[in-house]
Amino acid sequence: MTTGFDLVTMGRIGVDVYPEQIGVGLEDVTSFGKYLGGSATNVAVAAARYGRASAVITKTGDDPFGRFLHRALAGYGVDDRFVGTSPQLPTPVTFCEIFPPDDFPLYFYRFPKAPDLDISAGELDFDAIRAAKVFWVTVTGLSQEPSRSATLAALEARGRRGITVLDLDYRPMFWDSREQAREWVGKALEHVTVAVGNLDECDTAVAVREPREAAKALRDKGVSLAVVKQGPKGVLAVDDTGEVEVPPVPVEVVNGLGAGDAFGGALVHGLLSGWDTARVMRFANAAGSHVAGQLSCSDAMPTEDQVLRKLGGNE
Question: Based on the number of CB atoms within 10 Å of its own CB, is 29 exposed (0-12), middle (13-18) or buried (19 or more)?
Answer without folding.
Answer: middle
